[in-house]
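Dear colleagues,

As part of the handover before I leave the project, I'm documenting each prediction I ran so the next person doesn't have to rerun anything. This entry is a single chain, and its sequence is reproduced below.
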Amino acid sequence: MGRITEDLIRRNAEHNDCIIFSLEELSLHQQEIERLEHIDKWCRDLKILYLQNNLIGKIENVSKLKKLEYLNLALNNIEKIENLEGCEGLTKLDLTVNFIGELSSIQTLQHNIHLKELFLMGNPCADFEGYRQFVVATLQQLKWLDGKEIERSERIQALQNYPVIEQQIREQEKAYCFKRAKDKEAADRKLQEKRGKEEKKKRSSTGFDGCWYTDINAPLPSSLESNDHLQAPETQEEEYNKKKLDEDEDDNLAFWNKPSLFTPESRLETLRHIEKQRKDQEKLSEKKKKVKPPRTLITEDGKVLNVNEPKLDFSLKDDEKHNQLILDLAVYRYMDTSLIDVDVQPTYVRVVVKGKPFQLVLPVEVKPDSSSARRSQTTGHLVVSMPKIGDVITGGRKTSKSVTTTLDSGREQTSKRSKQIEKLEVDPSKHSFPDVANIVQEEKNMPRRSRSEPKITPSDEDPDFEDNPDVPPLI
């Protein structure tokens, strides 16, 4: 059953920014609405209301819509015109193809003094003899009836013949109401029979509480004693579902091939049948739909598997220059990055794309903490850089090692010197100051720096060499 809810009105009020209290036009057609409710409380400023092609059986809860100008209730189940006196601004009323048989109910529209157009075609009352003359004489404010303009001469003639026409209309109404009462009784009887058949069918197929029961003490038939005739529960369930589906198809064909009257009850019955058919189809599809088990990414013994559930192209490159592995995963270019989750482990990399896992076992171990993932701005691909664990000795590293060695040796020499005990010399026989006169000749008193440098002695082969004993040797 379709109902008028606040959410339904807001969804149909997009042109008014989903604000309903100031709504002036509302369209609720083809919503399977069976009752007219809530609109007079939520939408007081309505001027145009479309409710055609629903299952509304009574005009109600619209009397507070003082500003309503146009009301469309075509293709519904309305049998009587009522409860429209409060719609003071109503100028157009469409009741095409309903079940209005009480034509005298249009007298309630005499209070709607601004009503100019009325549509009653397709109703049983439109087939009454004198129908148009009765409406024209009763509603003198009308200008158009069923899309045809009312002329002045037509109204004068209708007013003159009004007593006779009214009597004819009353007699036809009475006959129609009697027939309608019989149709309602037949529809109620048919509905009770249908419910009885459904309950009987349910009892024959299941227990009193809707559950299946089996008598374990009952002996098996001779034809079922052998193992060849025993069936698995799954097979029995499949056969039962198939049998039930065939029965439903037969019932469906019988329902649509059976002739029926065009009454409000037949329209409701058709709607109920369609709803039941749709629900049965949904239940059947849910049973067929098997829940997929979660994808196995790592086996019980700890083995990591290669998985590509999103079915994406990828490439894994070994960048020896930077000592790293580069994974290029061709994710969708315009997909939001928030739908991608990257997890790098020492032996594998896992990327979850829209809930579907992509997992790849790496040929070497990598450093997860130093890894990085980026999206390409041109292709949208996901590029994951994963440095390998193996160290590569570079020039910079050599230098750092040599420096460390030199510093360590210097520290060792300093520690050795600190361990030696230094004593002050007090022997006067020893020179406490260097001999300046013998500084050059005596090699033992030469500075360490001068001893370390080799002496440059001129060669005798040089023709310009002249040995002068008074000249000291060059340092």
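Residues 162-205 form the longest helix (44 residues). The radius of gyration is 52 Å.

All the best with the project,
I.
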